Backbone:
């Protein structure tokens, strides 16, 4: 039997046409369904994870405290419940969109009662099947990492941190493997994209839905990708246009009535966020409608799969909907409208403080391992290049060698930079500094000792952020020995320090309370971790203004790493974070100067709009 082709243009046309005909109902649907996830589910789930952390005796779950968290049955239990709720919320949002898409396609009853009946029947059937638990890895890992076919604010919670990506992409082999992994996960998303529609529209369990989606999408991945592109590209263009439009009233106000600019900007940004909320929701509905249309036209859905969907009464939305049928029910529409106005007001009010905060230009630019575009990381060449680029502070890494010396090295081994299958902990200082390290740009240099690096920094009058790396083979008093060495060369209080080790933070603050040391927190959930450190260093995906304010309220500074793109730099400079660590200090210095000199409110608003509406 010949395979029925998967139509692209007709499916896209059907998706847009049906969504447009029922546009008012779509807006109401988005307001209630997506609004419930954004306003209720997401904050509730985030709060539950904070409770889980505190149930484990922690103020926050970090890479350092993860072991303690896992030893707490109560904390792990609460986290597990929150994970299940994430799956249910994501499944519920997607399932409602699928049910509505199918009812529209069939000219069936599109009332809330009909949708609820469909959902009740399918949810009850799925809950009776233990195999439904297979949805957990699919909805919590594959979907968020692949970002194809299902969209929700909840899918943003699972992502590979930028610092992991940056490290993987520095080695050709790792870059290839990492890219292959992303392609594989994205391909899996395409192959399993009809799993949720089948669960909602067919009388099947999870294994059968997965198997049918897998069979149906064989050799059709490119066509499915084309379907998604036909929705996602217009959505990106629409959001980009919104980002350009939002600052225009404030730009006019800056020239005509500067005193009113903050109010105008806040209202524009608040309304813009509401509009963006509906834009994303409408396009998600279009995407769902397109996928259901493609599945139906390709014979994937059985004729009797929706026997619980009665025919449409007069005026209900379908391919031949009347004008009256396109109208949303009055009460839900009124509630949705009031909710949108309230949301716009709240968002406008919360935008006042960020808009009123003027960048003071005091954010420190720190060059990550030197300026690695101009020299091999953690070498004298990259130090000199970072100084020439205008970096206020140069970040670098030190490790102890087998004979108690200290050399500059980030990785625990020399595989990436020298192609040697050995670790710093096994080498003497002389052996480590005899190795020539290279990067992909063709730079080559020998690794310096810490003393050599300190002396060159002293010649340049360059302050350092010294990361104390711990590989496990250090001498018993290695922290004291390190401080003594730095004191001997140019004074330990001339520089600042940070580390991933909570124990090292404790030792430094005990031995030398006058030194400034930070605690590196790659991942932090639930709040600010307890630490005697003077500052926290957080990965950029963890950063929020709320976290900044909480860190500041505890009298600590906040640094963000590794910030690579100009838009993200500008956003952080606007927030006046204490420092950003970047591989591109030249770009950061230019952006800092530009942001500090841009006193017009429209400039601040444009950066905020760009981050909100066109960011990842």
Residues:
């Amino acid at each position: 039997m010949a395979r029925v082709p998967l139509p692209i243009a007709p499916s896209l046309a059907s998706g847009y046409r049906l969504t447009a005909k029922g546009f008012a109902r779509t807006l109401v649907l988005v307001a209630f369904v997506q609004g419930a996830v954004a306003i209720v589910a997401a904050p509730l789930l985030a709060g539950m994870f904070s409770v889980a952390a505190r149930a484990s005796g922690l103020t926050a779950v970090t890479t350092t405290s993860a072991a303690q968290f896992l030893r707490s049955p109560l904390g792990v239990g609460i986290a597990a419940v929150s994970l299940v709720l994430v799956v249910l919320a994501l499944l519920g949002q997607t399932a409602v969109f699928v049910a509505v898409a199918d009812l529209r396609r069939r000219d069936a009853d599109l009332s809330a009662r009909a949708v609820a009946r469909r959902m009740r029947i399918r949810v009850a059937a799925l809950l009776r099947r233990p195999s439904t638990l297979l949805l957990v890895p699919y909805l919590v890992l594959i979907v968020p990492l692949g970002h194809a076919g299902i969209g929700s604010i909840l899918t943003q919670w699972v992502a590979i941190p930028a610092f992991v990506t940056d490290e993987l992409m520095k080695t050709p082999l790792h870059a290839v493997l990492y890219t292959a992994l992303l392609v594989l996960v994205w391909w899996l998303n395409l192959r399993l994209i009809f799993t949720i529609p089948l669960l909602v529209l067919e009388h099947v369990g999870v294994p059968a839905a997965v198997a049918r989606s897998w069979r149906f999408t064989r050799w059709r991945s490119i066509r499915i990708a084309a379907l998604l592109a036909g929705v996602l590209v217009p959505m990106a263009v629409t959001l980009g246009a919104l980002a350009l439009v939002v600052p225009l009233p404030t730009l006019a106000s800056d020239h005509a009535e500067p005193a009113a600019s903050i109010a105008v900007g806040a209202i524009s940004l608040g309304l813009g966020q509401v509009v963006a909320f509906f834009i994303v929701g409408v396009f998600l509905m279009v995407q769902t409608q397109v996928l259901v249309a493609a599945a139906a036209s390709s014979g994937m859905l059985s004729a009797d799969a929706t026997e619980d969907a009665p025919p449409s009464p007069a005026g209900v939305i379908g391919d031949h909907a009347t004008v009256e049928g396109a109208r949303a029910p009055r009460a839900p529409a009124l509630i949705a409208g009031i909710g949108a106005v309230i949301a716009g007001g709240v968002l406008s009010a919360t935008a006042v403080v960020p808009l009123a905060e003027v960048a003071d230009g005091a954010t420190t630019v720190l060059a990550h391992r030197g300026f690695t575009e101009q020299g091999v990381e953690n070498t004298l060449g990259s130090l000199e290049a970072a100084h020439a680029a205008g970096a206020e502070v140069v970040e670098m890494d030190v490790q102890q060698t087998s004979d108690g010396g200290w050399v500059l090295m980030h990785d625990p081994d020399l595989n990436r930079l020298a192609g040697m299958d050995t670790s710093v902990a096994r080498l003497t200082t002389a052996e480590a500094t005899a190795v020539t390290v290279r990067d992909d740009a063709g730079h080559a240099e020998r690794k310096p000792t810490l003393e050599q690096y300190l002396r060159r920094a002293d010649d340049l009058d360059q302050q350092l952020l010294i990361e104390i790396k711990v590989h496990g083979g250090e001498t018993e008093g290695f922290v004291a020995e390190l401080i003594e060495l730095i004191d001997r060369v140019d004074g330990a209080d001339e520089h600042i320090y940070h580390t991933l080790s909570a124990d090292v933070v404790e030792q430094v603050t005990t031995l030398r309370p006058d030194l400034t040391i930070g605690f590196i927190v790659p991942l932090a959930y639930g709040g600010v971790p307890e630490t005697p450190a003077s500052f926290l260093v957080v990965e950029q995906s963890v950063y929020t203004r709320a976290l900044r304010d909480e860190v500041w309220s505890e009298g600590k500074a906040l640094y963000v790493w590794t910030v690579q793109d100009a838009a993200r730099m500008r956003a952080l400079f606007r927030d006046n974070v204490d420092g950003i660590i970047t591989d591109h200090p030249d770009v950061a210095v230019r952006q800092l100067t530009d942001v500090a000199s841009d006193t017009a409110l429209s400039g601040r608003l444009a950066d905020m709009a760009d981050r909100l509406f066109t960011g990842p």
Q: What stands out?
A: DSSP finds 24 helices and 15 strands in the chain. The domain at 364-598 is CATH 3.20.20.190 (TIM Barrel). The chain has a mean pLDDT of 85.
